[in-house]
Specification:
The protein has 368 residues and is mostly helical. The protein contains 17 helices and no strands. The radius of gyration is 21 Å and the shape is globular. The relative contact order is 0.10.
Length: 368
């Protein structure tokens, strides 16, 4: 999916500002003596330092001629070095606000990719570094929308002024700084614009799927999903090829509204997955079920609701769902889920199933 350079670091805020100060400016929690030695970094303060580094880095990266002058490059070099040191706070040396085992694996892979960017900079391969930084946004979005930690606990209160952004770009930016309510409004404004929809069909489609993810993962609001889907269709901004799918989404959102008083079990999620798998047309008809399955699986894993074989089964399901969402450019990492499933399942048929699923996914990825 093509993105303008303005997007390169907009979403890079996502994983690393996950524990910045809240909008209420809550004081940092006093160190817990039981948590370990004093050298263990405090998660919130580490994330604050990460966000400060990004605050300096973002304007240089999104500028049309950013990273071309020596002054800009020194700023970029300094802050990439800082990110490389601080990103390890999620690698197991400090507590994070999620028990989802895939989070630490994604963080380690992010750290490895960031190390490659650092090498490119050290070798003065600035164009290659800029392109590679664009790919790092996938890690950020994946971690950003995981489970209940995505809902409201941490919000970035300070951020640089980024002028001349469209509503769509502002929506991505505000998602990056965890201003979810504002991001939803920006997405709605962009997607209700019929003229913009005609001239930016790819961005419109991606915006709708991003908004659907926010409403489902973060807000968990079936009524808002219903209103949103109806609004775009009634105002005429929704492309014709999505109209049929939107009617099915409405039915699924109504079903969700009826069910939402009780938390869905793993068995319920597997029913949604089975329904989505059978639903082949129209295009995107099963997207709402995939996103909803993803949201609940992330929540169960993040809250530590599942243990033993059930946790391994959920990780397999998360890999299956992730592979499907990958088709719509939703930023997930199915490989990590399949690997973790195989590790946790031990010498069982489920472990072999996860190993085979990983091989199949990697083979498909090579063919694409």
């Amino acid at each position: 999916m093509m993105r303008s350079m303005k997007h390169i670091f907009i979403a890079l805020f996502l994983v690393m500002v996950a524990a910045c100060a809240t909008s209420e400016q809550k004081p940092e929690t006093a160190p817990n003596p039981a948590a370990g030695p004093a050298t263990q970094p405090d998660f919130r303060s580490s994330m604050q330092r990460l966000s400060q580094a990004l605050t300096e880095l973002l304007p240089k990266t999104i500028a049309e001629h950013g990273m071309e002058s020596n002054a800009d490059r020194e700023v970029v070099r300094k802050n990439v070095d800082e990110l490389s040191k601080l990103v390890h706070t999620i690698d197991g040396r400090t507590a994070v606000p999620s028990q989802d085992p895939s989070l630490k694996m994604v963080s380690r892979e992010f750290s490895a990719d960031l190390a490659e960017v650092k090498t490119m900079i050290d070798e003065n391969r600035w164009s290659a570094a800029k392109v590679r930084l664009n790919h790092l946004t996938q890690y950020c979005i994946a971690c950003h929308t995981m489970g209940p930690a995505a809902s409201s606990q941490y919000t970035l209160n300070f951020y640089p002024d980024v002028p001349n952004l469209s509503h769509f770009e502002r929506a991505r930016y505000k998602t990056a700084i965890r201003q979810f309510e504002s991001a939803i409004k920006e997405y709605e404004t962009a997607l209700n614009d019929k003229e913009w929809a005609k001239t930016h069909p790819e961005e419109w489609e991606n915006g709708l799927l991003s908004l659907l993810t926010l409403v489902t993962h973060v807000r968990k609001d079936a009524n808002l999903a219903l209103e949103m889907i109806s609004s775009f269709r009634d105002r005429g901004s929704m492309p014709a090829y999505l109209t049929s799918a939107s009617l099915i989404w409405r039915q699924q959102a109504k079903a969700w509204d009826r069910e939402k008083k009780a938390s869905a079990s793993l068995a319920n999620v597997e029913e949604w997955i089975a329904m989505a798998t059978k639903m082949k047309s129209p295009k995107y008809a099963n997207t709402f079920l995939w996103v909803r399955s993803s949201a609940r699986l992330h929540e169960m894993l993040a809250m530590g609701e599942l243990k033993g074989a059930d946790e391994a089964k959920a990780l397999y399901d998360q890999g299956v769902v992730g592979a499907e969402l990958k088709k719509i450019n939703y930023f997930v990492f199915p490989e990590q889920s399949f690997k973790l499933c195989a590790d946790k399942a031990g010498a069982t048929p489920l472990a072999r199933k996860c190993q085979q699923a990983l091989k199949d996914y990697q083979s498909r990825s090579l063919d694409q």
